[in-house]
Please model this.
Amino acid sequence: MNVYHLLFCGIFVPSVLGQTRFGSHGYTKYEPGDMNIIITASHGGRLTPLRQANGDDWPDRKNGCKDEFENCIYTHSCSSANRDCPTRTLRDRNTKEIAQDLADKIKEITGTQPHVVYNLLRRSKLDANREINEATLNIPDAITAYNDYTNFISQAKLAIPGRGFLLDIHGQTHQPERTELGYLISKLRLVRKSYNMKYTSIRSLGEYWCGKGNNTCFQDFVQGNRGLGYFMNQEGLDAVPSPLDEDPEGEKFFYGGYTTRRYGSRYGGKIDAIQLELPIGVRYKWNGDDALKNAFAKAIVQFYQTNYDA
Model:
């Protein structure tokens, strides 16, 4: 192999409600909660350090290159970047603020606080929603921040007794404007209603209510009246998949990513994960629209109380 990431030994510290913790150099942040919801924001950071703590340069992330086996590798030592090994560096505007506001509104409604984990670095320095090599391009300080971020999520999961879910907040500019809910179900499978719960990031939710293998029942938790999309529709919010918009048809659609795959229940456990891809209109008017904040928070709380707190 041409590239290796640095090894890291995580030390887990029990979370304590109200005691905000920062990772190394203040590049990541964890606000422990006391309910079975985790909110993550990996692409909303603004920090753009030019140098690492040891004085070495910290260049922006760039496209990777191919090794002798035609596999993508991500390192600044690539002699020639390859368009087939792209990196994305655009910040998801307002997603950090949205994560914080959702947590605050949920606490106002329920009296309990979700766990919230933030990457405070701009995406050009760290993409915390990718595997470690693509995320960091093997910059040591980026690797440390990445491990801090992922360890904070692991700590939040360990602090949750029983079932719960993680919401990974992102932004997109697709048309028509609607929130895209990612369960690791492709748009083609949504169109055909041909998905299997065991390959989704909400496998635990499906198996709890439907039993293993009852995928007809499970459709209610994705496209029907038990899914997050249903409760968003009830609050006047556009979402796909949902009863009012069951599938994206031929339009662009983000169905989940690294965080939902790694921290959801596809591979076991009782913590599910959903990727929320918020449209640009929602993100642009978010700060000045308290009714919009309340609508999203109420939808999340109703989804939680119906499916996890029952």
In short: Strands lie at 21-22, 28-31, 37-41, 65-66, 72-73, 115-119, 164-172, 179-182, 239-240, 271-279.
